Amino acid sequence: MAEHDHPETDPTPPRDAPVELPLPPLPRPFFLIALGLIGVVLTWLPLSIIARARVFTTLEPRIQIFQDMGVQPKSREQQTNALFADDRAMRPRVEGTVPRGQVEDDDRYYKGFLRVYDPAKGTWTIDFNKSLPDQVKINSPLLHRGQARFNIYCYVCHGLDGSGHGPVNERVNELRNNNVLDMTWTAPAILTDNRIRAELDGQIFNTITNGIRTMPSYGSQIPVADRWAIVAYVRALQFSQQAPAAAPGVVPTGTNIEEK
Fold this sequence. Notes:
This protein has helices at residues 30-55, 107-110, 140-153, 155-158, 167-177, 194-198, 201-210, 224-241; strands spanning 113-118, 123-128. By secondary structure, it is mainly alpha-helical.
């Protein structure tokens, strides 16, 4: 009874007092929901493009965000370029320039000959090397190197034994004999015959460097040292075809091979 004697202190509200109810959440606008769904779908597009690129092939170049010089504007071989007066993208070497550290100051070594001027006649003559230059030492590594280079560049026409029966020559002869190919064909030289034997070492070196008749130049492909190694190996091939009779284990007179 004591608790109800003082109604002013009673926390219980009267029955007729208004009751405050929580407000319902506001509805979200439709455009926000649509934007959210579109954003989720857009995040799938890069994955879809990557997956498609891994499966399908195309002639178009791949999309490369960071090029890192992988794709760059440039001129390829044998293309034209209007920037230059001759419209050639491939530029020739500047005449008279010398690469650093590559001064070719010894014609006997770098060209295989020496130009000699005759003041009485006022003419120049070519004096080919009669033997290998002083920088080239005949030894087993040199001959092995010459054989390796010969089997890469020379064998296809001249054959492994220098007889001229390389695969290119044999194929051309086969096509001509079967009337498949109608052309004039200059057979490769037989490196072991007397004509090539009579040539000086400098002449053979010059032929490798500049080419002759239908044989192209190999000066830009074979370094100078390897060209002399090939010359030495050609001489070894010639020697092997007409080696003088000698007792087993006896090196014929005149042969000078250093072993290293």
